[in-house]
Amino acid sequence: MNKEVDLSKYQIRTDLAIDYVNENKELKGVKYKTEVVNGIKVTNVELELENELSKKKGKYITLEFEDVTDYKNRDNIISTLTFVLKKLIKPKKNSFGLIVGLGNDSSTPDSLGPLVVKDIIVTNHLYLLNELSSGYKRLAAISPGVMGETGIETSDIIEAIVKKVKPSYLIAVDSLASKSIERLNKTIQITDTGIHPGSGVDNKRKELSFESLGIPVIAIGVPTVVDASIIVSDTINFIYKNYAFNKEYMKDPKSKFTFNNVNYLSKKIKENKLDKEKLLGLVGTLDDEELEALIYEVLNPVGYNLMVTPKEIDFIIEKLSKVISISINNSIHNIDRNK
Amino acid sequence: MNKEVDLSKYQIRTDLAIDYVNENKELKGVKYKTEVVNGIKVTNVELELENELSKKKGKYITLEFEDVTDYKNRDNIISTLTFVLKKLIKPKKNSFGLIVGLGNDSSTPDSLGPLVVKDIIVTNHLYLLNELSSGYKRLAAISPGVMGETGIETSDIIEAIVKKVKPSYLIAVDSLASKSIERLNKTIQITDTGIHPGSGVDNKRKELSFESLGIPVIAIGVPTVVDASIIVSDTINFIYKNYAFNKEYMKDPKSKFTFNNVNYLSKKIKENKLDKEKLLGLVGTLDDEELEALIYEVLNPVGYNLMVTPKEIDFIIEKLSKVISISINNSIHNIDRNK
Amino acid sequence: MNKEVDLSKYQIRTDLAIDYVNENKELKGVKYKTEVVNGIKVTNVELELENELSKKKGKYITLEFEDVTDYKNRDNIISTLTFVLKKLIKPKKNSFGLIVGLGNDSSTPDSLGPLVVKDIIVTNHLYLLNELSSGYKRLAAISPGVMGETGIETSDIIEAIVKKVKPSYLIAVDSLASKSIERLNKTIQITDTGIHPGSGVDNKRKELSFESLGIPVIAIGVPTVVDASIIVSDTINFIYKNYAFNKEYMKDPKSKFTFNNVNYLSKKIKENKLDKEKLLGLVGTLDDEELEALIYEVLNPVGYNLMVTPKEIDFIIEKLSKVISISINNSIHNIDRNK
Amino acid sequence: MNKEVDLSKYQIRTDLAIDYVNENKELKGVKYKTEVVNGIKVTNVELELENELSKKKGKYITLEFEDVTDYKNRDNIISTLTFVLKKLIKPKKNSFGLIVGLGNDSSTPDSLGPLVVKDIIVTNHLYLLNELSSGYKRLAAISPGVMGETGIETSDIIEAIVKKVKPSYLIAVDSLASKSIERLNKTIQITDTGIHPGSGVDNKRKELSFESLGIPVIAIGVPTVVDASIIVSDTINFIYKNYAFNKEYMKDPKSKFTFNNVNYLSKKIKENKLDKEKLLGLVGTLDDEELEALIYEVLNPVGYNLMVTPKEIDFIIEKLSKVISISINNSIHNIDRNK
Fold first, then answer.
1. Interchain contact, C315 vs B278, CB within 8 Å
2. What is the rounded CA–CA span in Å between residue B60 and residue B55?
3. pLDDT tens digits for B31-67?
4. pLDDT band at D3 (very low <50, low <70, confident <90, very high)
5. Given A249, B330, D145, D159, which residue has the most CB atoms within 10 angstroms?
6. What is the pLDDT of residue A3?
7. Residue numbers of C between 17 and 56 with CB closer than 8 Å to B
């Protein structure tokens, strides 16, 4: 309390289902479907059992895209996200939605939720006065703040408000921590399982879910920060992939000309254990989990396991929040805006 | 709903007791005391009965000062306000305070409450973990937003949170509408009667008070906006006062030299009804209430009864919020900071 | 210097030509034309002589509108302003524009210029690298700050930059002080005569104009603040107009039913001097200038001649800045965006 | 130009001298001195020759500290930085300083310069009116923006203003890119050699220096961002250091109890090449430059060589900017403030 700001309080929450599931693994009780819509990769994961992913059963839909600051791309993300939300929410004539913007509006990478809430077209107060225009549904929105700034468990605030105003469903928007450098700010996850802080590490926050609140809870999350240790373990893997790719690819004399333009991560390579150990020593023999654990143990005691965000985060968050608020407005109300 | 922003929703709340009471009038059931502490005028009004003021019984303490952007002045306001709050709150060892920042952080003149909350040293989450440092009391803080942005009645949000987290007292900070141009941004009112939107005009918001919440409610309010009609009626009165002052004062030949430096409002003048009518015609014969009603009727139908704020409001609100947050922190926790 | 912020430094600049000219007066050397385009009233004033208006000769185009926060209205203002700017700028293939955002980004009512600059699509750096996309013109933009925050005369900064980067024309965007309550935030003035601080009161800033910079200077100004004394003198005039309107109108028995819905300012009334004196005494005998002077003398010595802005200024400035930046972008570049 | 925001324009500038010099290397023409003042490590590097560091000759003073958000620490940084600046600036009675805040106020990690400028006590306009209070020196300040938002080379703007207003010295404040994870937000570099974008990578911006401007130029820089590739190469080195430390340390049975509390980076270890290769394979045989080059080549083609900043950057930048603005104000004016 000698400090004005206890930075440890600004924790970012949870992670993505698709980091645990992929096309290569076939898992019991997991339905997996992927398609590309207007350049946006949409992945549907349906967990029918609680399982080793320590993920709850339910639907996890993930949108992957390249660059949210590109105009055309943005319009595509909006139409895809609107479509996904409409299917998931299915707002009926008298349904009453509560949008919850989780996170801290004073911290750029954690401000996604509060920024989205600012742009939601709320109507509940008009509904109560019988002044709701046709085409609009009953909607309220709140930014409960973060525990480090309120001193109150965020889920307690939400629970109390839900009990009082009795919405029929809840949509929570939040910043997430990414489990891979490739997802950072390029993924939106929508799930009907709620927000599950339990899947994070030392994050004891209570969940917002059907189980805890008694109403359907949809969570929209975007990974906006990543641990330094994940950047490092991803890169160590990339070092090997790049090496293996070059080794295989360089046999072909034609490759010389196109070499620099090729994304080596997009090609499948066969792992060669001997090669990997030669290149990376004992570190090269570790599996993903062991490598992450090693790096965590190396960075943590000296205080450098920073959680980081790209330096352009202000611009990215602004675009992401517009994409999400517009999609929520369009999917609930009977409108079609793009600003 | 054709508009993005329904401006009518950004209403500012309530008004000051000292606009209804003054040294000249002696009122039944009203105790009135005024003193000057370090250049700050402190007025204590105690209403022992509900009465014609349409104010609730309780204590109303008002601090009046000249310029909150002056360094030295600010330190004096902080120490006076801290003293007043300490006396009113009397925080005990185990008391648990909830600071509520009313208003809209997106609207400068209405952002006082949310800005104060940003600087409150909250400790409730540490208390619950048994990590409260010595010298600190249990404190939480929240900015519930405004109905125009949440769609939810603000008092409903507060009520729900109070019920859930069970604070032992509540302090609400809010921007007020001024009933006189002289008070604007130069007055802080502290009262133990809560926030009473009923005293405003068409403001149907429910009150936050001991009666509604079951715990002591202290309200800290600063008038940051004023109706155009009040500016006009005040000025019409000033026109007469200036005239009367000049008439009386100009008899004295010595006055010529100091004339321009004299504040004519600081001198008491005797009203001369004939003079006033000569100067201001029928308008000069109206009493204060009649004049205000006339101006309201003239400005309202043409849409010019604007609620306005000084153009320097950004700088003033910043200073006011610091003064109040520092005073709250110092009066509850056992600390003495000035930043 | 005992204060952190010298508020007197945040002065707002200049005023509108249409406050001095109107359809009723015919003035030598003044061409006057007015039309309504998509609900926007467009007034063209062309001064062919320097004259008693203390306005420079040149074109003054004024857009008047009701509510900039209304979606449809906003689209109309954008298309009208784009049309006006295109005619005035006539950007040629190789012309190089410099947009200057005057004002203080820390002070909401004075932040219009800097906010507009944030949204200008600048291309000069791309032009210099031969990377200018087709459809785009060469454009730069700068916010020089205000003297109270830089310590430097703003026109000196602009002059220095113009000399260095050599644009072929300049567009300055600024907040203005309104000379009437009716114009406040409901008027955009575009002129090819530059910014003329000389027409303001005690504002010694040097002008930005063809004469001082050697290139065409277009100024876009919006009145965002108004003196308390103007609110008062306008209202005193309204009191009489309202009285005269009622007197005339109430003879007609049919009027009883529609009375409250009629805008008395929209009807022409004949002034009756005796009536006016009866209603307002000596004050009623003053002409507009005398009345303003009286009120100024009454309010100034007691410190209440505040310059004020409506309490919704944050929302209004945001919409106004979007309207202007989009119009500038669309009129210079070969694009047609509405966000 | 299909994008609204060209993120590549928000580049952060230059780097630190102490990343190239250290106590272990003795370099010709380099004076090196280090001391600890109030817990702040102060390193003085004086380059007497241009040399292989590709750094200009002159003084480089570096302050290293642990946590700028700690109150007591902050006061120590302020007093040390004030002392250093006083020695370097030596402001005379009539000297006229221009503070330049480089960077982009819309991008949190790049907003340090503009934020510092907001809090500088400027006086040049008062000096020109002969209203300078005693104790204050002549001072101006400007935030020229970034080329991506102005379309103008920033050094051109500064050069033009310097030519016009003729300051006698210039202080430029800027965000830097860090060459090591350990420096990030924990270092302030002050140099009298100006800002030298030439030492950055593909950053063609012209320098601000005595050579280009004809007046002394002091640069104050804080590394606020770091390349992902540096995080990775630092961590790979830490993996080995941690391994070597454990190997040596674990022989001692007493160590078991304190093990987890020891900072392995603070102990000097002897490098064992065989061990390093065993642990890290071929990668372990690379020297620092080779390792960085490898990682750059691995991350760049797939777009993941992000420049990143800690997720708490909003809070850190706010504290850093206060520390620097207070130190500049205190070192130039004859005042001693801590807010």
1. no
2. 10
3. 889 999 888 999 998 888 765 555 678 899 999 998 8
4. very low
5. D145
6. 42
7. none
Tokens of A242: 């790049």
Could you list the beta-strand ranges (E) of B241-321.
307-310
**In chain D, which among 279-338 make CB contacts under 8 A with chain B?**
338
User: 């009649």: which residue's tokens?
Assistant: B290
What is the number of other CB atoms lying within 10 angstroms of the CB of residue D299? 23
Give the count of alpha carbons within 13 A of D68, CB side only.
Answer: 26
- Written as one string, the DSSP assignment of A170-211 is EEEEEEEEESSTTTTTSEEEEESS-B-GGGSSS--PPPBSHH
Q: Which two tokens stand for residue D143?
A: 């935030």
A57 strand-pairing partners: none
Chains interfacing with A (3 or more CB pairs < 8 Å): B, C, D
For residue B173, give every residue at least 6 positions away whose Cβ sits within 8 Å of its Cβ, in sequence order, or none.
B99, B100, B101, B102, B112, B113, B116, B117, B219, B220, B221, B324, B328
Among B158-162, B175-179, B332-336, the range with the most confident prediction by mean pLDDT is B158-162
Q: What is the DSSP code (8-state) at residue B232?
A: H
Query: For residue B104, is pLDDT > 90?
Result: yes
Neighbouring-strand partners of residue C54: none
CB A174 within 8 A of CB A102: yes
Q: How far is CA C33 from the centre of its chain?
A: 18
In DSSP notation, A318-335 reads HHHHHHHHHHHHHHHSS-
Predicted model pTM:
0.91
pLDDT at D8: 47
Domain B7-222+309-332 indexed as CATH 3.40.50.2300 = no
* Mean per-residue pLDDT, B242-262: 66
**Among residues D181, D159, D114, which one has the least CA distance to residue D324?**
D114
Question: Residue A231 is encoded by which pair of tokens?
Answer: 């950047």
CA–CA distance, B160 with A163 (Å, rounded to integer): 8
What's residue D6's pLDDT?
47
Partners of B339 on chain D (C-beta within 8 Å) are: 338-339
Query: In the C/D pair of chains, how many CB contacts fall below 8 A?
Result: 95
Query: What was the ipTM of the complex prediction?
Result: 0.88
CA nearest to C171, candidates C210, C197, C132, C124: C210
Size of interface A-D (CB pairs under 8 A): 187
Cβ count within 10 A of residue A260? 9
Q: How far apart are the first and last CA of chain D?
A: 43
- CA D192 – CA D220 distance, rounded (Å): 9
Query: How many CA atoms are closer than 13 Å to the CA of A182, on its beta-carbon side?
Result: 13
Query: Cα distance from A339 to chain C (closest Cα, Å)?
Result: 7
Rounded Cα–Cα distance for residues B68 and C3 (Å): 9
Q: What is the mean pLDDT of residues A251-272?
A: 66
Domain boundaries, chain A: 7-222+309-332, 230-308
Mean pLDDT, rounded, of chain D: 85
DSSP-H helix ranges across chain A: 71-89, 112-118, 124-128, 147-150, 154-165, 210-213, 228-249, 255-258, 273-280, 288-299, 313-332
Mean per-residue pLDDT over chain A, rounded: 85
**Alpha carbons A177 and A227: distance in angstroms, whole number:** 8
Q: What is the 3-state secondary structure (H, E, C) of B140-191?
A: EEECCCCHHHHCCCHHHHHHHHHHHHCCCEEEEEEEEEECCCCCCCCEEEEE
Cα A153 to chain center, whole Å? 22
CA distance C304 to chain A (A): 35
Give CA–CA dist A67/A320, Å, rounded. 10
- According to DSSP, the β-strands at D169-178 and D217-227 are parallel
Among D78, D119, D133, D339, the residue to mutate for chain B (most B Cβ within 10 A): D339
Opening angle at CA C315, ends A329 and D142, nearest 5:
120
Q: How far is CA C261 from the centre of its chain?
A: 29
**Contact with chain C for residue B244, Cβ under 8 A:** no
